[in-house]
Design a protein that fits this description.
Strand order of the largest sheet: 9-10-8-11-12-7-13
Number of helices: 36
Structural class: alpha/beta
Oligomer: single chain
Number of strands: 30
Radius of gyration: 33 Å
Helix content: 25-40%
Distance between the termini: 37 Å
Low-confidence stretches: 1-21, 647-659, 671-698
């Protein structure tokens, strides 16, 4: 049998039913007496196959629905019942559009490893940014799962976008969940839409509550949108959302800044444990994924593949090479590809600030009582507190006052006057010394004002911008109050020129501050921020100046700060300044003791290693600072502390350092193999040789009948809306390539998947502005970033994933009726049937997709696109409207379909072999994964079942797409002489039969 039967007629075990129920994307099904277009399908445990569809017939047109074959009668009709219909459109436009639409709507098979869409998006062509997607699709792992650990600034968001786009094209990205820190939600959302046309609906706790009020009680709020982005701080409340998250599956989950998931038992870790087993693809991203503990890192990798690491205490980088990719700015592939596109940074400039007399008095108090330089005891009973006190003073007197006040309250609560008397007295003296200090007593503040006004040029008449970092919220708030006037701003300008950002603000407030600073025509000139902005935030669009008002005692944190402006897309050389408070007091631990040395070591590490995080071997900012302070207490210098922790140092931790260094070396330096298993099966090649030959031969990843998406869209508009100028108010600018039109109701319905802010601010429901001109789209994006009204561009780039392109593709598909295939007159010697053949796995995903030309005699050509070109099917072909009676052609369908299935069956093993070997290797590795607990054994069984479910199963789904017919005006007479420029009719296989045996000639022709 060559077709899937009506589901209601099936019987037998669920497993047998799953094998048979193959509903490929793009196929039409009949459910509840209405026609629907299949978008995706997947098996379920209890209810047969789940189909996500969109309405085709008039009553349900463009309505989205979900059906289950175990609950509804779903008909995917026998291809032998295909009706052959005439096409009277000019140049067979309707038929060509239909074939192109089927090609576009059919998911790429599991066997296609090469990237399909990388060159079509609004970003620079940088091969290093494609490699995470290549690794995800390489087949090295059962599922598309990986940890992207590129250092700060290389473009991890773009790498994630490319990976998601490829998954969507393979039918594995319908439902996407992105989880990020709250302050980068909008930034991430904008990048995925403006660069890739991947819309994400942003949900926060308020948004989820609003959805819950609008939907029926008990319904899962996460089912309201297919692709969403949520802050991890919202979702980590597992008590509130756990039930909903456990009841939903995703095609892809992205977790940014995933190092925050490591701590076992934390709310974020619990969230990750819920999401990881409920998604096919899982992408983790972090520039600092390792906290120095092998077991914790193994747990993070276990989210991707539980069986990847056998011994969490002892493993190497090679064990996880299929799951992990990491590059630095000095990695060869990055360095070569980024020439001229990323300005080199300079070292951090130390700005020495000699302490004022008032500050020297505090240095004297600290050096004599709290941190005696002669080795005497400190007045504090807590060894680390004097350094907390010192760091707060090195930040600002406002921070010092807050630290002193908090410590006094803590000691007074102890109600132990004898034990705390000396320390309270010392705290009282510090409080008096700091009580009346103002900005006039701050050497750092004076230096900051000088640097901003004289060196950087910040002022009322300048557009110059600067980021000022401080660890202490009190310092940020104090600076916000005194800095505007010192810079010459007055009135409203004084209120608007400075913005403060820190972890105490809501996600909306943090995103608003980042957006204001990133837009060119807003009045913000100085962003005062804490280290909440040191992870993931892009601050480089309008800024290349950064000032460390105080310096964190961690190389990792310094690097993260610098990475906010030193990142991909920075056009000007980033400049860093650090305010270094100096003292003449003997033994004073001023900023030259720690901060200045750390700045120098960070710059050395950046230039020699590309990153500073492996210098100490601790891999966490908090651990670095704590270790450094403990070493200072032991009398070590900063350099001695850092060198004693250096990987390979001769101490008790050197083994661990060597072990961890594997993960921060050149992991992933070799490009992934992009060969397709089908290529290997066909040519007998493997590995890089196969990939090279495929690229050399120019074999297309995406079979296309039209030469471009622009050409397809242009003809589709002409077919679907011949009166588009009136019905859609369509305007075209032939010079710029801008298309402007009023979206019809069915397209407006689809636009609900776009970000709500974007829909509202650009009034997209009223008019759409789109283009294929990448320069125009890039210019619109840049203009939006320079606007204070909206950071969303008014013009979007049309890509294959854009809702407008998908809408027109579906419109074209339904121009033909149920199970209809057009008849096309072409340059062929005998009728050639165009047949789609799809093998699938138990999950309903295609493993092999073949586009064939088949004759009744059994000749088969499995390169349909090339065949169509040879047969002259294209925009210049003529439609003479000479139609044959379809009955004899229809009677040949059983023979044609039998020949197609025989062709597929004969080659199935060869096509399957490259798929089987990685799965077999995984199962061999799984067999050696010892699990002492029952839960572990069950997990092992689930992984083995998953591996088996990825193999091709069942018989192929066959679909008749069209039939190419000989020109009735050109008689099949071998003796007839052709014109010199007339190509011979295309023949498949052996020479065609003699004229009397040409069965199709019995079909009468109407003109």
């Amino acid at each position: 049998m060559t077709a899937v039967q009506t589901s209601a007629e099936r019987s037998g075990a669920t497993a047998d039913r799953t094998v048979q129920e193959q509903y490929p994307a793009g196929a039409q099904v009949l459910v509840r007496d209405e026609e629907w277009l299949v978008r995706s399908s997947a098996p379920t445990t209890d209810d047969g196959t789940k189909l996500e569809v969109v309405g085709v017939s008039e009553f349900v047109r463009d309505q989205e629905a979900v059906f289950f074959s175990g609950l509804d009668r779903i008909e995917l009709l026998d291809p032998r019942d295909t009706q052959l219909v005439r096409d009277d459109s000019p140049n067979y436009r309707r038929s060509r559009l239909f074939l192109e639409a089927v090609l576009r709507r059919t998911a790429l098979p599991q066997s296609e490893r090469r990237l399909a869409l990388a060159d079509s998006f609004l970003l620079d062509s940088l091969p290093y940014q494609r490699r995470p997607a290549e690794l995800a699709l390489s087949g090295a792992n059962l599922r598309p799962r990986l940890l992207i650990a590129d250092v700060v600034g290389l473009g991890k968001t773009l790498e994630i976008g490319l990976t998601l786009a490829e998954l969507i094209r393979r039918g594995r990205g319908e439902r996407i969940l992105v989880v990020t820190p709250q302050h980068v939600l909008e930034q991430f959302q904008q990048e995925l839409w403006t660069r890739f046309s991947i819309p994400l609906v942003r949900l926060d706790s308020v948004g989820i509550e609003r959805i819950q009020r609008e939907i029926p009680a008990g319904r899962n709020p996460f089912t309201s949108f297919k692709r969403v982005i949520v802050s991890i701080d919202t979702l980590k409340n597992t008590n509130q959302y756990r039930h909903h998250l456990e009841q939903i599956r995703w095609d892809a989950v992205v977790i940014d800044e995933s190092h925050n998931l490591i701590n076992r038992g934390s709310l974020r870790n619990q969230l990750a444990q819920i999401l990881a087993p409920r998604t096919d693809a899982l992408i983790l991203a972090s520039a600092t994924p390792h906290n120095g503990d092998a077991r914790s890192f193994a747990e993070l990798i276990g989210l991707l593949d539980p069986a990847a690491i056998r011994d969490p205490e002892n493993y190497r980088a090679d064990d996880i090479r299929h799951l992990f990719i990491r590059r630095t700015k000095i990695s060869p592939e990055v360095r070569e590809q980024m020439k001229g596109q990323w300005a080199d940074r300079g070292p951090s400039q130390s700005v020495h600030c000699p302490a004022t007399p008032a500050e020297e008095k505090i240095f004297e108090e600290l050096a004599s009582v709290w941190l005696p330089h002669d080795g005497g005891p400190s007045v504090s009973s807590v060894p680390l507190f004097p350094y907390t006190l010192l760091k707060s003073f090195l930040s600002s007197c406002a921070a010092l006052r807050a630290t002193v006040s908090a410590r006094i309250k803590t000691l007074e609560k102890k109600d132990a006057p004898r034990a705390t008397a000396d320390e309270l007295a010392a705290l009282g003296r510090l409080s008096e010394l700091a009580a009346d200090l103002t900005e006039a007593d701050s050497a750092k503040f004076s230096a900051l004002v000088h640097q901003l006004k004289e060196e950087i040029g910040v002022g009322p008449t300048s557009d110059a911008r600067v980021v000022v970092f401080s660890e202490r919220v009190q310092t940020l708030q104090w600076l916000a109050g005194v800095l505007p006037a010192a810079l010459g701003f007055k009135g409203r300008a004084a209120r608007d020129c400075v913005r403060v950002m820190h972890g105490g603000l809501s996600d909306e407030q943090q995103m608003a501050r980042v957006e204001e600073f990133s837009l060119a025509d807003t009045p913000v000139r100085v962003l005062l921020t804490g280290d909440v902005a040191s992870e993931g935030v892009n601050l480089h669009r309008q800024c290349h100046q950064l000032v460390h008002y105080d310096v964190p005692w961690s190389l990792i944190r310094i690097e993260q700060r610098n990475g906010r402006i030193d990142r991909y897309g920075q056009a000007r050389p980033p400049q860093f300044r650090a305010l270094i408070l100096t003292s003449e007091v003997e033994g004073a631990k001023d900023d030259t003791v720690v901060a200045e040395r750390l700045l120098g070591r960070e710059d050395e590490a950046h230039r020699s290693l590309g990153t500073a995080e492996a210098v100490t071997g601790l891999y966490r900012a908090e651990a670095e600072e704590k270790s450094l302070i403990q070493d200072l207490l032991r009398g070590k210098t900063v350099d001695e502390s850092l060198d004693s922790r250096r990987p390979g140092a001769d101490d008790e931790d050197s083994g661990m350092d060597d072990f961890l260094a594997d993960f921060f070396g050149p992991v992933g330096e070799e490009p992934a193999d992009q060969s397709g298993p089908e290529d290997s099966a066909r040519t007998g090649e493997s590995g890089a040789a196969s990939a090279a030959s495929a690229r050399a031969a120019g074999s297309p990843v995406l079979p296309r009948l039209f030469d471009s998406t622009a050409h397809f869209l242009d003809e589709a508009l002409g077919e679907v809306y011949p009166d588009a100028h009136d019905r859609l108010e369509l305007d075209r600018d032939p010079q710029s390539g801008l298309l402007s039109f009023q979206p019809p109701a069915d397209l407006v319905h689809r636009l609900k998947a776009l970000p709500m802010d974007y829909l509202r601010e650009q009034r997209l429901r009223e008019r759409l502005l789109v283009t294929f001109n990448r320069r125009l789209a890039e210019h619109s994006l840049q203009r939006a970033r320079e606007s204070s009204t909206s950071s969303w561009p008014e013009i979007s780039l049309l890509t294959d994933l854009h809702p407008v392109v998908e809408w027109l593709t579906d419109k074209v598909l339904v121009r033909l009726g149920r199970q209809e295939a057009p008849m096309i007159t072409a340059n062929v010697a005998e009728p050639i049937y165009l047949v789609q053949g799809v093998y699938s796995n138990k999950l309903g995903r295609p493993t092999v997709v073949k586009w064939m030309g088949v004759t009744r005699r059994g000749a088969v050509d499995d390169d349909m696109v090339s065949l169509l070109r040879r047969c002259g099917v294209g925009p210049s072909m003529a439609n003479k409207r000479h139609f044959r009676e379809p009955r004899p052609l229809h009677e040949a369908l059983p023979d044609v379909l039998s020949a197609a299935e025989a062709f597929l069956d004969e080659r199935r093993d060869a096509w399957d072999e490259p798929l089987r070997e990685p799965i077999a290797e995984y199962k061999r590795r799984l067999a050696t994964w010892d699990q002492p607990t029952l839960a572990g054994e069950r997990a092992k069984e689930r992984l083995a079942d998953l591996a088996d479910s990825l193999l091709t199963t069942g018989r192929p789904m066959l679909r008749v797409l069209a039939v190419l017919l000989p020109d009735p005006d050109r008689k099949p007479d071998p003796a007839r002489k052709r014109d010199a420029d007339e190509p011979p009719p295309v023949v498949l296989g052996p020479p065609p039969l003699s004229v009397p045996a040409a069965w199709w000639l019995s079909a009468p022709v109407t003109r």
